[in-house]
């Protein structure tokens, strides 16, 4: 265990640097904060280091962490300063980003995919990934212009699901939709002009759903890539749904149709 | 139109006071911010006053508002200070709270209700109300200990749906469940120990769903009030869903079952 007591230590600078997307991209690293989140890290996922507060180190057995990676022990004040959460739990992990294999996902027998265009709200994006994980989706694809997956608020809202379901960023939706067409994976989107309920779609087969930006909805360009526009019924007076609720309704229709009879 | 240029004006003090629940409760008033939200106010809903910024007054026809209530025109700085949003749109409405009639709701032929126990996240609560509205639910009941419906963040997340669907606060769940039993309205809750999927429930009949706190789930007390525990299938690896997504999945199963064939 390495004790760190100075804010000039290079690890402190590095941890602070990882709060910024540019540095996360350059280093290929991100920070997972909190015990609950860290418990979701799969055994084979590469962790560069753990950082703990003095208080955490005094109360917890660290051998489990030391077996896997270097453990840095920071003064409580230094630890709080490198954390994004207001009431940090005393532990964080510096994780390697993983490069998932998109071709392997598309080559599955009946792929079940979620695509999102320019999702901007960190809470929404994280929740959508968590829902896709719960539903057993095969992957999530995020278009260019979406909020960064490794933004601390996004990570928190995923509740660790980014360790379970492959998420691809900076996706060119045109190029992806061409690949999907070649594999005969139909692309559906909820759209105000939709004329089919999701309940009428053949979702036991391969399927992909495209959801749009929270405020603007889908761009015309992206909507034109779809094989069918779907209408989520709204018998009440609200004119639209929250983006992560709409995604949940669509993804769960796949779950319902695929349940063993 | 009344011009207000001093922060000592009694209206300024009153508007600032309404940021606090205690004052909202005492006055029976709440503040609706922004054009989009204000457009959702039904014609017969009582508005005590509108407040606009000088900039808004210079660019908009206010006669529509003046027909309905007193219009206060604040300096841009004063207006920004009374608003909760960071980039206010220049208009807010001081609305009367409405007392909905719970007995009338319970007396409907096939009521469709949502109950929530101690929902604490303003965004979640607002989203749940918006979803209940979209689904055509007859009412939302909030237990004691929930975040205040008239909290600005809750209001914003409802997107105006609190004007469409009756929402009851400070509900004693025991007393409500007795009334529901008398009316033969079954109460369902998503529960880890649930053994029936929502798809197997008779939701064309009267039905009510109970959802729990975001972090703690349902209390044992509340779970014991239910007629059946329901399992939302999770074929993936996530162990739980975001509270508003879970509510969306349950409420939309009612919509699906009630769709005209």
Automatic annotation (TrEMBL), chains A, B:
GO terms for molecular function: RNA binding; RNA methyltransferase activity. Residues 9-93 form the MRM3-like substrate binding domain. InterPro entries: Alpha/beta_knot_MTases, MRM3-like_sub_bind, Ribosomal_eL30-like_sf, rRNA_Methyltransferase, SpoU_MeTrfase, tRNA_m1G_MTases_N. CDD domains: SpoU-like_rRNA-MTase. The keyword Protein transport does not apply. Keywords: Methyltransferase, Transferase. Transmembrane segments: none annotated. GO terms for biological process: methylation; RNA processing. This is RNA methyltransferase.
